Amino acid sequence: MLQADTVQLLCLTAASGVPLFSRGSSKQLPFSVIGSLNGVHMFGAGQGTVLSSCETERGSRVVWRVFQDSLMLIAVSGGGNKALSELHLRRLLENTWNCMVLVLGRDELANVRNVERLKRELRSCYRLIDRLLERGGEDQGFMGDLTHCADCLVPAQPGILQETLDSFTQAADSEFGCLLIRGRVAVATDKWLRLAPQEVILLSTLANSLSGVTSCDYPVFLPQGSPTVAHRLLCFQLLPSAVVCVLCGPSPSLHRVESELVGSFWSPLVETLRGCLEQAERSSLPPSVSLRWDIQALLVINRETRRSVVASSRASSQNPSEAPPLSSPARRWELLRHFYTFAVTRYFTSEEVTTSPTLPATPATPAAPATQASSTPATPHESLHEDFSKGFTHQPTQCYLVTDECKCYGLQTPQHQLYLLTDLSVPTFALRSVATLTLSAVTGATGF
Amino acid sequence: MEAVPPGSVIVADWYRNPDSRDFFTKILHKKKRRVFGLLEAPVMPPHLKADTVRYKVFISGKSGVGKTALAARLAGHQIPNMHYETTGMETSIVFWPVKLKESSRVLFFQFQLWDCGENAMRRFDHMLTSCKEQVDAILFLFSFTDHGSFKDISNQMSRFTDPSDRVVRLVVGTKFDLFMHTDVTESEITRFQEVSRVPVFRVGGDVSEGFGEIAPLLNALAENLWHQDCIHASSASLPPQPHPEDTNREVIV
């Protein structure tokens, strides 16, 4: 249906099936296919079922979702090595809808009066949507689009940054402020962190998409917090890749904040900011956290604050010569995403979005991420799809997976989750203690 | 106010002159234009100290005419290869060293370019007000591939400026490289320049030629803004000699 490794996103009116836009893969699906995709969903609806996802034998997937009874989004992914998981496609639909609300507001989308006008207006969402589809951040370890936890950076000296941010935000007549370092949240005000996680992620994405722009004033609707009344997102590039954002009402003006506040609050912190940028180049964790050399990558999620931090070890010097070379950083992030998806869809299910019941259109061939395909424990694929919690009253708190590329360990406590990728040289029986120690090393040293 | 002829206030094509190198290298980084954050500015060694003067420049024009691309071109950022609507206001900072003809004094002009999407401006009232607040110059854009946008220029000029304002006005034709599809003729441009007495600049194509592409426009902006300030200073203050430093313009030392 689609070329391998590509994704296409379609938007249609839910009632009449009029195509509104299509983004993603350069080769657009023919109109007849779009019509059929809409038709099969409509047929299901006529029979009182909701068609939400299907999968072909070659690993292509289609995911449908109707928003506000008004617009339907369909994501189609081709098979291939980089095929997206169903979870990822679902998140993509949700994120896309949120983008549309963010730019246009919910009213505009929920009550379609003039289709042609809506088509024109939707064009203003393309920049953000394309940004989501590019998956550009994946090779730098951005996970927020998948985990719905804000990608964070833990600065070595958060105190002074936090103080400055709080007073700067206050001076701008706002309670919502955030400092992004290389696209990650370094510090934020309490209120900012209490925004819905999807909103935090989208606002960061928006702020990051302004390459080269010195400052901006964007009207934004908050998909959860304020879908019908626009706020203003003001962003200021203090240093290249160090951006401070505030969410404001009608005042103060961009000009005023920039000329009166930015310099006076942030100038004294230039060196601290430079330090953060340098740190971000190496890791999202401060140097005080030392990781074992055989850890390839890790993702720690704070379940209460919905924040996440990733780290990856660099090819280190004390690496014994017999150890196999580490895979590329991009590959490690990819594996980490696969492992996260694997763990939350099978074991840590409370983390997954509650989705409408799935009706597989074709017998599901698990197509999947390379980690599972190559898992060495002789577990048949089918058994991985079995609902673990069926018949069990308890929630799994740990899981592991051994592949021919790396070993993975997942661990959850009431407050945290850790997803760990280690070198093959780590004995499988030691994974649990490595994971436990790593989690306490990260959370203990940073208070994350 | 009428535009000053190029080269009358500042040294024309100074970037080609060897003595400008020390200054122009400060706005470059690895042979590309350096991106400046709000807390940064070019730093010169003590013997070459140059003051910085700040101006706010608003880019006006119909949707799709190339406002964002012009801002990126002038600031030396990567020009987006795809057209996306700007859904809000964006500003970019451009530092441009200039040598005054009379005093041989070197100044860094800091232009803050304000770019605002037309649709956003229509939907949200505060945008236009914010763009006009304390503006020093306006660039009116039209596209050589869209005759409508050229016709619209006189409308825009009457809408955005009233004659008493101290605002420098320049017209820029974008997408000049697409001459195969050009929709605006040279004679129309000439006529427009004669009637409105506002110079028209042409931009388009890739920016491989370095400063040559953008120098005429940036120099004209600098020259006219400086001239405007000098006139204002001499009419408002007592000393007969224009002392531009005395204007209320913020001078960063």
UniProtKB/TrEMBL annotation, chain A:
FUZ/MON1/HPS1 first Longin domain boundaries: 8-132
Pfam families, alphabetized: Fuz_longin_1, Fuz_longin_2, Fuz_longin_3
Residues that span the membrane, as ranges: none
Main location: cytoplasm
Span list, region Disordered: 354-388
Domain FUZ/MON1/HPS1 second Longin intervals: 174-258
Record keywords, A-Z: Cytoplasm, Cytoskeleton
GO cellular component terms, A-Z: cytoskeleton
Composition-biased stretches (Low complexity): 354-380
Compartments, record wording: Cytoplasm, Cytoskeleton
GO biological process: non-motile cilium assembly; vesicle-mediated transport
InterPro entries: FUZ/MON1/HPS1_longin_1, FUZ/MON1/HPS1_longin_2, FUZ/MON1/HPS1_longin_3, Fuzzy
Ranges where the FUZ/MON1/HPS1 third Longin domain occurs: 295-442
Keyword Magnesium part of the UniProt annotation: no
Domain of life: Eukaryota
Cross-referenced PANTHER family: INTRACELLULAR TRAFFIC PROTEIN-RELATED (PTHR13559), PROTEIN FUZZY HOMOLOG (PTHR13559:SF1)
Family, similarity comment: Belongs to the fuzzy family.
Name of the molecule in the record: Fuzzy planar cell polarity protein
Organism the protein comes from: Astyanax mexicanus
Lineage of producing organism: Eukaryota, Metazoa, Chordata, Craniata, Vertebrata
TrEMBL record, chain B:
Entry GO MF terms: GTP binding; GTPase activity
Matching Gene3D superfamilies: P-loop containing nucleotide triphosphate hydrolases
Localization, UniProt: Cytoplasm, Cytoskeleton, Cilium basal body
Keywords per UniProt: Cell projection, Cilium, Cilium biogenesis/degradation, Cytoplasm, Cytoskeleton, Exocytosis, GTP-binding, Nucleotide-binding, Protein transport, Transport
Source species, domain of life: Eukaryota
Record GO biological process: cell projection organization; exocytosis; protein transport
Family, similarity comment: Belongs to the small GTPase superfamily. Rab family.
Name of the protein this chain belongs to: Ciliogenesis and planar polarity effector 2
